Amino acid sequence: MAEPPFPPEPPGTARDRAADVVTQQACAWFALIFEGSASEAQREQWRQWMQADPQHAKAYAELEDIWILSAALPAVKAPAPAPARGVSRRRFVQLGMAACSAALATGCATLWFKGENLSFADLHTAVGETRTERLADGSVIELAGNTALDLDFSGATRRLRLLRGEVYCSVAADARPLRIDTDAGAVISEQGAFCLSCEGSSADLAVSARTARVEIPGQRAALSAGEGLTFTRTALGPIQQAELDQLMAWRSGSLVFFNTPLAKVVQHVQRWREGRIFIADERLATRPVSVIFNRHRPEQMLDVLARTLPIQVNRYTDLLTIIRTA
Question: Looking at the domain that runs over 253-325, which CATH code has it been given?
Answer without folding.
Answer: 3.55.50.30
